[in-house]
Amino acid sequence: MKNTLFTLSFLMVLISCSKVKSNKEIQQTVNKTDSITIKQIFNSALNEGQSYQWLNVLSNDIGGRLSGSPEAQQAVEWGEKLMTDLDFDKVWLQPIMVPHWVRGEKEEAYFIVNNTKFNVPICALGGSISTLENGITGEVIEVKSLKEAEELGEKLRGKIVFFNRPFDDTLIRTFQAYGGCVDQRYSGAMVTGKFGALGAIVRSMTNSIDDYPHTGVMSYGDLLEEEKVPTAAISTKAANLLSEYLKENPALKFYFKQSCKTLPDAPSFNVIGEITGSEFPEKYITVGGHLDSWDLGDGAHDDGAGIVQSIEVARLLKLNGIKPKHTIRVVLFMNEENGSKGGEKYAEEAKKNNENHIAALESDSGGFTPRGFSFDANGENQKLFISWKSLLAPYGLHDMEKGGSGADIGPLKNDTISLFGYRPDSQRYFNYHHAETDTFDKVNKRELELGAASMTSLIYLLDTYLK
Questions:
Q1: Distance between CA atoms of residues 183 and 205, nearest Å
Q2: pLDDT digits over 377-411, tens only?
Q3: CATH architecture label of 106-259
Q4: What is the per-residue burial (b if ≥16 Cβ within 10 Å, else e) of 102-112?
Q5: Class of 40-101+264-465 per CATH?
Q6: Whose CA, among 20, 28, 116, 315, lies 20 to 30 Å from 451?
Q7: At 29, is the pLDDT very low, low, confident or very high (cuts 50, 70, 90)?
Q8: Inter-axis angle of helices 305-319 and 445-465, nearest 10
Q9: To the nearest whole percent, how much of the chain has pLDDT over 90?
């Protein structure tokens, strides 16, 4: 009897071991298949990529694409035609109303010390009001934070408030440095206006020391019309110069002039292209970037790169004979820069139509060398995503970490969807972000194509393994 039980137990162990081995072999086969497919995706992106040529047209033929502008409308028409020509199963325009702010004439600024005039590069912040027709002149109060400005209170009345908190250069991830000081750009006028300030100037959001001011959106919050003050960004080099002279000449006068204004909201569109899923056509995986840009450069990195990479995802899937199980949507969002109306509208329509979005990926961090992806998802899916590291690491995609995704896909967030942000190397991004230096010549063709392949690989894995 004992021998019989021992034999049965031994057989059970053998069967169990055999089953474990079989599962392991299956997993190895799956991983090998995925590895081969991902390699094919990268090969085709690097040998037959189209994203760089598309970006050339978007950047150089159309240019800066501020919401409500003729260039933004040209970009809508370009995106619709391109996805139609690429034989997407469905292409359509999703109507939205967007803010329409215009810069007007080139801004002027200077200060004088000991009869020496120092011209200062500035640019109006998006949403700001203009100065008086002949500009404004006032004494300057330098502050490092919104809190410091609040504490000064009535001392700000009649003054030009100079927000001069720089990036923290010890932060390796430059988006953290940006997040650490962008509040002064967005809310500086909101704080100073209520205390009767004359105007506000803000150190540009960049770790580069140069003469290029960086624009970006600002807000007046709930200030009354008479409390609103003109607000501009000052280049980092000029900010350092002004700060030094203020130490010795605290009563120096600063002059600036800008003629920007806000027009009534304008009609525009999100551009949407779709590849219908072969098994789950009613389940959606979205990939996209924002079609609008600021007006100073041509928006090549922010976010022309994300636009062409997202379109290239669909083309690379088709080129490699990958028929997605889920419906893949490419969305060219409008108005991320100064209103996020495109992302809000897309999520609103998705909810109204009871669409089941299982995942979304956004590229809005420039067209630099791929580093990985951030994700915002439930615990079960987190483990799945992290398990893909071994497949993606050979392509430099080592970072697969929990974090934010993107402003345009954020409104889709719920308890089940998995949101991703494409994360390229960030060290050069804020050299160009929102500045006239954000131009096509700053984009490296190979880096852009590697990014498109990286995004396509993630979409392939999401389509393969998510239910």
A1: 10
A2: 988 899 999 999 999 999 999 999 999 999 999 99
A3: 3-Layer(bba) Sandwich (3.50)
A4: ebeeebbbbbe
A5: alpha beta
A6: 28
A7: low
A8: 60
A9: 92
Cut 0.90: pTM above it: yes
- Phi, then psi, of 422 in degrees rounded to 5: -70, 130
Question: How confident is the model over 77-102, as pLDDT tens digits?
Answer: 999 999 999 999 999 999 999 999 99
Question: Are the C-beta atoms of 67 and 74 separated by less than 8 Å?
Answer: no
Parse the chain into domains and list their residue ranges: 40-101+264-465, 106-259
Predicted local distance difference test score (pLDDT) of residue 211: 98
> Is residue 118's pLDDT more than 50?
yes
